[in-house]
Amino acid sequence: MDILTALMDGLWVALQPANLGLAVLGVVIGLFVGAMPGLGSVNGVAILLPFTFVIQEMTGSYTAPMIFLAAIYYGAMYGGAISSITLGIPGASTAVATTFDGRPMALTGQADKALVAAAVASFAGGTISTVLFTMFAPPLASVALQFGDPEIFALMLLAFATFVGLGGDDIPKTIFSICFGLVLATVGFDIISGEPRLIFFDMVGFSDGIQFLVLAIGVYGIGEMIWTINASRSDDKMAEVTITAKRVMAAIRSFAGAWRGTAIGSFLGFFVGILPAAGATPGSLMAYGVTKMASKDPKSFGKGNIDGVAAPEAANNSASTGSMLPMMTLGIPGSPTTAVLLAGMVIWGLQPGPLLFSEQPDFVWPLIGSFYVSNVVALLVNLAFIPVFLWMLRMPFTILAPIIFVLSLVGTYAAYQDMFDVWLMVLFGAGAFFLRLLDYPLAPAVLAIVLGPIAEPKLRQSLLFSDGDISIFFTRPIAGPITITALILILLPLIKLIRDKLRARRAPAG
Amino acid sequence: MIVTKRLFCAALGAAALTAASFAAPAQAFEPNKPIDFVIMAGKGGGADKMARLMQSIIEQQDLAPRPLVPINKAGGSGAEALVHMKGAKDPNHTIMVTLNSFFTTPLRQPGLGVDIMEFAPVGRMAEDTFLLWVHKDEGVTSFDQFLETAKSRGSDWVMGGTGKNSEDNIITDFLNNNYGLDIKYIPYKGGGEVAKQLAGQQITSSVNNPSEALGFYESGDVIPLVAFTDERLPLFPDVPTLREVGGDFSYFMQRSVVGAPGMSAEAQAYYTDLFSKAYQTDQWQKYKADKSLMGDFMAGDDLKAYWMVQRDRHEAILKASGAIN
Amino acid sequence: MRRAEIVTAVILGLLSIYLMWKSGAPPAWNPDAGRFENIGIVPGEGVGSGFWPFWLSGVMLVCSIWIGVNWFLRKSPPSRSEEPYLDSFAKRSLLLVGGGLLGFLILIELIGFYGAMFFFLIYYLGALGRHSAVRTLSIATAVPVFSFFFFDVAMRIVLPKGYMEPLFIPLYDMFL
């Protein structure tokens, strides 16, 4: 019962007016930073890092600045869903999967339902993972240490496997899209050989690689946008949404239908999140894929299934709490944002690592307490802002479209602070438009560019270990089962396809 | 309407120009717009942590009239950052935090056409140190035991490090070449990841900076065997230096601030003063002590001379390991 | 649409071949190394730096050919479609919107984000959207002003100003 007492004390500290105020402020800042395409939690946290010194001086504790930054992190996770649903542009890689069903829901007049589902699922994911964090933090840290290179690669393979069948019906176009994303992911500096790779036309801009957001904003902010302008012809508005208290209540009630996605997302997200190097993006992608597989009606995914919004949102919030675990217990960041948080802790004079829980309980427990508090705050703030976001949707298309274009360009610049990336983004957007007309699915490319940079080095590091022997992925106790599961999932649709073909051929004969 | 706005802007600009010409005292440089603070590494790494600490100190103590705006440019092992600096539109408002890739990257990628001697030497804030770490379950407690065990295991002894031809790789090559070892080197993305791989016994040794391995050192998971420094580190008084155990080698990582090529002498003097003030703050001194950093503040021609020595040294090291011709 | 399908497949096939060729490039500092030495297993280093991009580009090439075969067999919907790839409406909107974006980018390089935003919004809202002058001007002014306070002031992300930089120095004085 030690944990419970410690937690109660922690909650008490987190609820002190100063800390509560910081949590609210952090959540609101995070919500807007997250909702802005191009800016994500990592920018929000990095930019406000110097400000935390002031907080530390004013309050005299380590905890207050950390509560503030953690609240920004949460707020941004909630906010990411907003641009995914209303604008159709994933603000951060963690929110890509939310566009798959969130966008179609918004286009069919169910934006309110989607936004509410995203908020409530985020809350559920955040809270479930905080409970898991509270109870199992130290033992789970040792699990995370067992994940070496082959294990992480196997996990990436599994993430791909859950996505088989994500694309359209055209198989070669889907495979092309995945491979294209994976190849783009290798552009830039290769850490293992120490060489620059695929620097097209010797342009220095490529040496930092092609960032996820450059492709994602290009595809969604420019390509999809022009495609929509073209497809909607004279229609001036997106679907009309009216806001009444009744509709909001109905939307909250309809969330009951999304329990499956929420549950899968919450647990899966947490476990993927605690693994260093994986982070929230693979977590949310896998949650989407698994929910689709577990669903009775997998065909409705991608067309506006509420489970398809709830699963990735629950997962990315859950994973963001999860990724705090290796950061605090091992001093290892599980995501770019936690890397900055870690830098913050070091700057304030804390030493994250295996001893943090025993040596700094005054820091740890109020922080954990604040996770609970921040989630409640984030849910309330988010629900309160939903009418504002819906109002944006009601703007005439000829106003919304140019604003989205402006946001896409500014957002890309803000993310990487390089005009080269802005030009490249528009170029990708143009390409995406032409391919979209011919039914090339582009979501797989966007996903591949997120997973590729994790998967490729892990593959090569593993092969370095084993001197090029691929059995390393099958013989290690954790990697083996994951790899085999992944391969079965990848091959299953193929086997099914061949079987169906054979049957179809046999039927007329017999 | 457009015309009026333009007129308004022009009037504002004219007013600003006159104001600026009155306000500026003779010669002394003061930044009048946000300062580009380029970081030659990705978010969350050792260099990034330090850069953000500097920024925070300057902001908190109100040392500069305009904010430092950190921009991470990690691409191409710092190549992107170097090229960005070289092409800086306003060199008086562009500074960069560097590490040793400042020496190695122009050598490895001559096509960039970067000459580091053209950069303005603003100030060296510290030198980071390297130690050899092993996991406690390896049963190795001294450098001699390490040599023995590593030799008997051949290429099954695995060293993790940050990137190919990086500082960690240079030290590993030194050990392999001078002690007849056949250690396998596996490059990872950052020092933190290396530390975790070692704590989880995925690799057998590392040459992390103290700041990266400290957490696992304090919990007893990893132990330092030898320091690649000239004197023992205050934080690890029981760990001998390599020189004490018979090696002739020490290696440091510079943590310096440089100005873009073409920076005026006044601007350089201003930034040197700014960073020497930051260097003297209690926060920086505490950080230096906590993370076992060495090296005093160094600026101007001294720093340039230091770069010259370091560049030649790295050229020799890279040539010896076959990483350049 | 049918012609566009095969033309695109051919272009993507050529792109794949280019990527395969580029993946095999030797490192810049060592021109002696042959092309395609890095695409297989390098002794002591596991797979080379070109392995992943080369073989994946290879798969892309196979897919392009497969798409071509489907086109020949008229299996995919676009290869059966008799509709034009871009009708006159599509051409017109592509020209106006795409041209607007290109102009926006060029203006950013010249007069920075804020100025360019202003003119782009005037063009889009006023010329394309046919909104009233009041509405056009108020949005075209509000967006850059809001962006300046959000990015430059609050987030400390300084957007490029191009030739308009001197105009912003007094603003930095006031807000930064």
Describe this structure in words.
The complex is a heterotrimer of chains A (510), B (325) and C (176). Chain A has one domain (2-509). Helix content of chain A is 75%, strand content 1%. Chain A is built from 22 helices and 2 strands. Chain A has a two-stranded antiparallel ribbon. In chain A, helix 3 (41-59) packs parallel to helix 15 and helix 8 (171-184) crosses helix 20. Chain A is globular. Chain B has 325 residues and is of the alpha/beta class. A 5-stranded mixed β-sheet of chain B has the order 2-1-3-10-4. In chain B, strands 7-6-8-5-9 form a 5-stranded mixed β-sheet, with helices on both faces. Chain C has helices spanning 2-23, 51-72, 77-80, 88-128, 133-154, 165-175, and strands at residues 41-42, 46-47. Classes of the chains: A mainly alpha (510), B alpha/beta (325), C mainly alpha (176). Chains A and B meet through helix 3, helix 15 and helix 20 of A and helix 2, helix 3, strand 7, helix 7 and helix 8 of B.
Report, as a whole number of angstroms, the end-to-end distance of chain A. 69 Å
What's the alpha carbon Rg of chain C, rounded to whole Å? 25 Å
* Percent of sequence in beta strands of chain A: under 5%
Q: Which shape of chain C, going by the Cα principal axes?
A: flat
Question: What would the keywords be for this entry?
Answer:
heterotrimer; B: 325 residues; alpha/beta; D-Maltodextrin-Binding Protein, domain 2; 2 domains; 5-stranded mixed sheet; C: 176 residues; mainly alpha; two-stranded antiparallel sheet; 6 helices; 2 strands; 2% strand
